[in-house]
Amino acid sequence: MPDPCLVRLVVQCRDRPGIVAAVARLLADSGANITSSAQHSTDPEGGWFFLRLEFDLPGGAVDELRAAFASGVAEPFDMQWRLARSDERQRIALLASREEHCLLDLLWRRRRGELRAEIAVVIANHPDHRADVEAFGVPYEHVPVAAGGGGKAGAEERMLQVLAAARIDLVVLARYMQVLSADFLERVGAPVINIHHSFLPAFAGADPYARARDRGVKIIGATAHYATEVLDAGPIIEQDVARIDHHHTVTEMTAIGRDIERIVLGRAVAWHLDDRVLVHEGRTVVF
């Protein structure tokens, strides 16, 4: 018997009859056995259709299947799609500043095998966490952002060089406290996931938890999203909240917020790596 090979396929296209049948027919003709399937349509009459499949492909002839799928299914239905072995490991870069809770949590999740990826490099604008990161066997690049005219541009240029050398598939802002330029996001060549606290109402800038307490906020939370040139406005991947009340101090609120940030970012990164997130017109479908 050929060795099993688990493969994932994600698809989005205009909805019309015959999509699932065409996909299933080609997989069956290739000897594949579908083990997991999820789909969504925004409107069966000309809306958008989203599909995620996992299937066993005996022999693991992924390249041949990819070519057959491109010509036999993807082109006729004008699909955006991705087909990859589930054991392929994407390469992640983590960007960090002084707060370490998200950074160390992702490193720990990778060591525990909870993230299907290799963390190829950590880039930080402060030197604080070098020893912790290198203890996980991950290279640490200190790229300071100098004050003044060309400081940010020079730092971003250096980061782009490091990311290119590391052959990165995904960048995660693990509480990286610098606003990335539109030029950086355009040139990085990989999706960028960000995490930030989210309140109702939102409190931007310094000391958000102190201002939230002053306003009597009852819910605090966090949002993970894809970064775009518009600050904190990219497609949302995951959110979560916790209830608080007048008894909570700023220190307690901050600790709760950090826990939520870790959990939400961990989920978002894992879902992205498992091809569970499809983006369409500024929104996400998360299977």
Give an account of the 3D structure.
- This protein is α/β, with parallel strands linked by helices.
- Helix content is 33%, strand content 30%.
- The protein contains eight helices and 13 strands.
- The protein has helices at residues 19-29, 62-77, 101-111, 130-135, 151-165, 182-187, 208-214, 250-273; strands at residues 6-14, 33-41, 48-56, 80-85, 90-96, 117-124, 140-142, 170-173, 192-199, 219-226, 236-243, 277-280, 283-286.
- The chain has a seven-stranded mixed sheet, sandwiched between helices. A four-stranded antiparallel sheet has the order 2-3-1-4, covered by helices on one side.
- Helix 1 (19-29) packs antiparallel against helix 2.
Taking the sheet with the most strands, its summary is: 7 strands, mixed
Query: What's the order of the H and E elements?
Result: EHEEHEEHEHEHEHEHEEHEE
Helix content: 25-40%
Structural class designation = alpha/beta
Uncertain residue ranges: none
Rg, Cα atoms, Å: 21 Å
- What is the end-to-end distance? 32 Å
Percent strand? 25-35%
For the secondary structure, the number of strands is 13
Mean pLDDT rating: 93
Shape: globular
**Strand arrangement, largest sheet?**
7-6-5-8-9-10-11
Number of helices: 8
